[in-house]
What we know:
Layout: H1 5-25, H2 34-49, H3 53-56, H4 63-77, H5 87-92, H6 97-114, H7 121-125, H8 147-157, H9 180-190, H10 196-205
Helix pairs in contact: 1-2, 1-4, 2-4, 9-10
Amino acid sequence: MLSYRENLTKTAGKLKNRNNLLIKLASSTWGANANTLRSSALALCYSAAEYCAPVWSRSAHTSQVDVQLNSTMRLISGTIRTTPVLWLPVLSNIEPPALRRKAATDKLVEKIIKHDSWPVQPDILSPPLLRLTSRKLLWLDLQPVDINITWRHNWKSAQVVHFSPSVRAHNPATGFRPPSATVVSAESFSHGTGTLRCLQKEMATYRY
């Protein structure tokens, strides 16, 4: 059926195991800073999550991968499960998974168009007739997009809780550099699950 369900299920399982490695780096007491966690996540998690993404990015089962990537972004930003999903890419300074897959697809299509000797080129430039309307074929969406512009537009037009126009989708959020322990405490306090004493203790040991 070429639904890629089995492949994406295995990929999601691999991402879950790699997120467990990030948990060790994101300790609530001595955890690495957000930049280190972000670099580690891109190397460990996103490299596996986006392998051959242009092939399966239009599958109906990509949500399995996205769920694990959401967990990855929560580990980077130190946010809790109640944090809205739309906030996660902004706080972790990583483009949304769907946009990253679209960018990878655009890059592949651009490379295919430049190589006349590749057998796949006629399928892209002169595709066959569509037989199954349910299929989201690659050549039906060849218009390239600017990932930062699209991300910024989606961020401004979305209904996000605690939305602030000063927060830019493609720039690191304020406080991105402090240790993850500080971010976790601040996030917990903002949701009413932390204590003022805990937040004051963390802020006293680190100056923004």
